[in-house]
Amino acid sequence: MQRWLLATVIAIPALLGTPPVNAGAQDIVKVGLVQSMTGGLAPVGKQVTAGIRLYMQQHGDVVAGKKIEIILKDDTTIADMGKRLAQELIVNEKVHILGVGITPSAMAIAPLATEAKIPEVVMVSGTSAVTERSPYIVRTSFTLGQQSAVIAEWAAKNGSKKTVIVQSDWAPGAEATAVFTETYRAAGGEILETIKVPLANPDFAPFLQRARDANPDTLFVFIPAGQAGTFAKQFVERGLDRSGIRLIGPGDITDDNDLPGMSDAMIGVVTAGLYSASHNSPMNMAYVEGIKKANNGLRANFISVGGYDGMHLIYEALKKTRGKTDGDSLIAAMKGMAWESPRGPISIDPETREIVQNIYIRKVEKIGGELYNTEIATLEAVKDPTKAAKK
Ligand code: PHB
User: Fold this and answer.
1) What is the pLDDT of residue 193?
2) CA atoms within 13 A on the CB side of 387
3) 17-28 tens-digit pLDDT
4) Between helices 327-334 and 302-320, what is the axis angle to 10°?
């Protein structure tokens, strides 16, 4: 165990290619990252840390006179591991800030953040309830509800009447289904069936057959980042692209990470997402280029921006507190912060500590020989609908 832990603690100065830290302890701000570098959601860990690294390359590692030291730990896509590692980061490493990833780990770590009064910046999780688990949680990723409500409205307005839902069976999937179902029904649509697919190593073929047998006009699908390539392949192999059933979903099904490897059968698929690699802004062009260069041609996706923006939030909060690192000061500084991200304008809702962002309706198109999510409409400053409904 000990050996394993040592092996997975990557001292980030080395990872970032920066010289070792010489500063005194009070001049260092320690950021402990708990991300999924291996296991089922390893593609998520790769993207989010690519975003974090790029932000630090572009902005340096000294903020408000303090040196930022990153300690990255791998939760192996397992919540209990995430919790144990966060505990170790807090107690042994005495980190000032946690940068956390997937929903199960973010939830497991929440009580530790509360107890230690340490900000938990959530950079991946898309489950609404996460930010309610601790007053020290701030999110820079997204919620599935934000995207699912928007695509439900769009589908209903564009002739969709009968939908089958295929959902990865864990918290963000349940949320995608709940919000889609509610919004779609309110707009007059009917849900024929909700089919749950296991999170680990899914074989989509039998579920797709079942979905097809229900004879819907629309298929709403949530699967997490990293599974879109496999899903698209099985979708086409089953002939669903030629079935007349329209495929829709949150941005995860046309993940930029996997899109270049998908077949042209995906052209025309419409999703509601927070980020597209083809988002037309100078900042995003530089972002996509930066991620590509530093990661062997990797295409930036919606997960990576959560890491990039998470670092921005940490840097700007430290500037505002003039380097003060206590959790209460940092959280107060983070509330209400607004800035431009590679995805477009974003802010942190001061009441809920939840991200507010544009949600784009996108259509898969082939541009310069590669598939992209072309943004065709923008819904501005979308709040998490699950929290809005509770108020
Ligand atoms: C999550 O951890 O909530 C999560 C991860 C990957 C996704 C969506 C949600 O694509």
Assistant:
1) 98
2) 21
3) 454 445 677 799
4) 120
In order, the DSSP letters of 291-331 are HHHHTTTPPP-HHHHHHHHHHHHHHHHHHHTTT---HHHHH
Is 224 in a helix, a strand, or coil?
Answer: coil
Model's pTM, two decimal places?
0.94
pLDDT < 70 stretches in the chain: 1-23, 391
CB 166 within 8 A of CB 195: yes
Return the structure tokens found at 239: 């002939």
| Cα–Cα separations (whole angstroms), residue 241 to 218, 231, 285, 367 | 12, 12, 31, 20
Closest to 47 measured CA to CA, from 57, 35, 58 = 35
Q: Compute, in angstroms, the gap from residue 183 CA to the centroid of ligand 1.
A: 21
Report the amino acid identity of residue 185: R
> How far, in Å, is the centroid of ligand 1 from the Cα of 65?
34
Ligand 1 pocket mutation pick from 75, 140, 259, 303 by most atoms within 8 angstroms of CB: 303
- Nearest to residue 142, comparing CAs of 44, 36, 30? 44
| Torsional sign, CA 174, 180, 184, 189 | negative
Q: Is the CB of 44 under 6 A from ligand 1?
A: yes
Q: How far apart are CA 332 and CA 327, in angstroms?
A: 8
Q: What is the DSSP string of 356-379?
A: EEEEEEEEEEEETTEEEEEEEEEE
- Residue identified by tokens 């544009």 is 358
C-alpha distance across the termini of the chain, in Å: 46
pLDDT, one tens digit per residue, over 298-330 is 999 999 999 999 999 999 999 999 999 999 999
Cα 265 vs. chain centroid, distance in angstroms? 26
- The count of C-alpha atoms lying within 13 angstroms of the C-alpha of 360, restricted to the half-sphere facing its C-beta, is 21
For the Cβ of 127 lying below 6 angstroms from any atom of ligand 1, the answer is yes
Nearest alpha carbon to residue 222 among 145, 161, 162:
145
* CA–CA gap between residue 267 and residue 165 (Å, rounded): 21
The percent of the chain in helix, strand and coil, each rounded to the nearest 5, is: 45, 25, 30
How many percent of the chain have pLDDT more than 90? Answer: 92
CA angle 356, 359, 364 (to 5 degrees): 155
Give the count of beta carbons closer than 10 Å to the beta carbon of residue 293. Answer: 12
Closest Cα to atom 4, ligand 1: which residue? 125
| Cα(153)–Cα(145) distance, integer angstroms | 12
